[in-house]
Amino acid sequence: MLKVLLFLSSVVLLAIFTTPVSAVKGAVPLDEYNFDRIISRFETVLVKFDASYPYGEKHEAFRNVAEELKSSQDILIAEVGIKDFGEHDNQKLAERFGIMSKKDWPALRLFIKGEDEPFSLNHNYIWSVDEIKKFIKEHSNVYLGLEGCIESFDKLAAEFTGSSAKQAVIARTEKEASSLKSQTDKKSAEIYIKYMKKILEKEAFVQDETKRLHKIIQEGKVKAEKKHDLQIKSNILSSFSPLRSEL
Question: Which domain holds residue 84?
Fold first, then answer.
């Protein structure tokens, strides 16, 4: 652990002196020369592959996640700047992970120690702070509290997903919900319980409902308040997701 912390300190120092103007606070800049050496040192690494000087809503979502997680000991946030001109810096590195041309930018790759390939979240998927954190949460052991979620209920949701005694877990969840004081938490708890009961009725509920919510949120045809409510439901639903596939 000490060796890893010392190594991370050296990475941070390197970033201070080599970081481009567009660098994100909390994200370590990587290139084709240091990529493998740094990635191999950590259990979980989220890397954004993008233009050397990125901009736009997706970049801002990544920036906000990086800043929020900058003190986390559980995950390293990093970025690779690609140039499609001159020396074509890091283009070959991006191609290793299926990012073949500028039209594929930006792209996220989540590296988990022990996995042969990184998990992917590509540019055509929803990019928001919650969706990026959900992507990390679903494919790693890093716990990230999403808006509307309650940690103890997330644990119950995970237990429910893997349990053969689902009714018993529902009973415990209802009991815990009855002791909540916050109206906001009570509203969230109701969603957890509702989803548990829906899953009992329909085995494919999580997958189907996840797709439905993502479609509505991505299309953006609902009012901001309704979209916010749908995002919270999507966040809570992710606590039940057994999926570990690419997005």
Answer: 2-139
Locate tokens 């994200």: which residue?
Answer: 27
Does residue 164 carry a pLDDT above 60? yes
pLDDT, tens digit, for every residue of 188-227? 999 999 999 999 999 899 999 999 998 998 887 889 899 9
The tokens describing 151, both together, are 């940690």
- What is the count of structural domains for the chain? 2
166-175 contacts: CB < 8 A, separation 24 or more? 166/196, 166/199, 166/200, 167/200, 169/196, 170/196, 170/197, 170/200
Asked if residue 106 has a cis previous peptide bond (ω within 30° of 0), the answer is: yes
Token look-up 């009973």 returns: 171
Q: What is d(CA 234, CA 130) in angstroms, rounded to the nearest whole number?
A: 9
Sign of CA pseudo-dihedral 190, 193, 198, 204: positive
Contacts of 212 (CB under 8 A, 6+ apart): none
Do 212 and 236 fall into the same domain? yes
Give me the sheet containing 28-30, strands edge to edge.
28-30, 76-82, 44-51, 107-112, 119-121
pLDDT tops 60 at residue 7: no
Residue 205's pLDDT is what?
A: 96
- CA–CA gap between residue 107 and residue 120 (Å, rounded): 7
DSSP assignment of 177-236, as one string?
HHT---HHHHHHHHHHHHHHHHHHH-TTHHHHHHHHHHHHHHHT-S-HHHHHHHHHHHHH
CA dihedral 27, 33, 37, 43 (to 10 degrees): 40
- What is the separation of C-alpha 4 from the centre of its chain, rounded to a whole number of angstroms? 23
Residue 111 sits in the same domain as residue 168: no
First to last CA, the chain: 32
